[in-house]
């Protein structure tokens, strides 16, 4: 199986901050990488698909980049509703594996 | 509005069975791959299974093969996960998700149903 490693596992930030998360695949997955936002009690939400495509309805402050094994998700200006956990998922090969998540907390 | 509502979770003893359901609305169910994903307490998300639009193809993660079966009923706009021989490590929140059409992924998710396997 392809292993997905996210860093950091958590971070503290303030409203208005620019934050960047990273996701590394154990082998090349080209651009078959999705990013999700999730919180307890809420349905997960797709933010970015195919590494850099913004899902419809997702604010433009979210952006994704990368290819091969290294990927990033950036939030250009953190908003109160963005405090959540962010997980990457590779869809290159079955099983579609997820990273362990990065939790964003209020500083 | 796309809606996915899971049901069927609960407390079950090791070795027991449960059948999860996911009721879909707000879209043409028969046009989409569907998925089950789970999240164990304190752990990350884990993809469990998916099924093609017409049910002719499906895949399961190795850890549930031979114990879990994904299925769907397009006439009822419903997705199912039959879970047999349950183990403590199957304890998790189970989400159903609609497959993204333009690229592999999951574009809409339900809020989940909790499965607890314990004696």
Task: Output the radius of gyration of chain A.
Answer: 13 Å
Strand order of the largest sheet of chain A: 2-10-9-4-5-6
Helix/strand/pairing category of chain B: mainly beta
Task: Give the SSE order of chain B as H and E letters.
Answer: EEEEEEEEEEE
Number of strands of chain B: 11
**Count of helical regions of chain B:** 0
Explain how this protein is built.
The complex is a heterodimer of chains A (107) and B (119). Chain A has 107 residues and is mainly β. In chain A, 0% of the residues lie in helices and 48% in strands. Chain A has strands spanning 4-7, 10-13, 19-25, 33-38, 45-49, 53-54, 62-67, 70-75, 85-90, 102-106. In chain A, the strands form 2 sheets. A 6-stranded mixed beta sheet of chain A has the order 2-10-9-4-5-6, with no helix packed on it. By secondary structure, chain B is mostly beta strands. Chain B has no helices and 11 strands. In chain B, the strands form 2 sheets. In chain B, strands 2, 4, 5, 6, 9, 10 and 11 form a 7-stranded mixed beta sheet that branches. The N and C termini of chain B lie far apart (40 Å). The A-B interface holds A 32, 34, 36, 38, 41-46, 49-50, 53, 55, 87, 89, 91, 94-101 and B 4, 37, 43-47, 50, 59, 61-62, 95, 97, 100, 102-112.
Short summary of the structure?
The complex is a heterodimer of chains A (107) and B (119). Chain A has 107 residues and is an all-beta fold. Chain A has strands at 4-7, 10-13, 19-25, 33-38, 45-49, 53-54, 62-67, 70-75, 85-90, 102-106.
Give keywords.
heterodimer; A: 107 residues; mainly beta; six-stranded mixed beta sheet; four-stranded antiparallel beta sheet; globular; B: 119 residues; seven-stranded mixed beta sheet; 11 strands
Secondary-structure topology with pairs:
The complex is a heterodimer of chains A (107) and B (119).
Chain A: E1 4-7, E2 10-13, E3 19-25, E4 33-38, E5 45-49, E6 53-54, E7 62-67, E8 70-75, E9 85-90, E10 102-106
Chain B: E1 3-7, E2 10-12, E3 18-25, E4 34-39, E5 45-51, E6 58-60, E7 68-73, E8 78-83, E9 92-99, E10 106-109, E11 113-117
Parallel strand pairs in B: 2-11
Antiparallel strand pairs in B: 1-3, 3-8, 4-5, 4-9, 5-6, 7-8, 9-10, 9-11
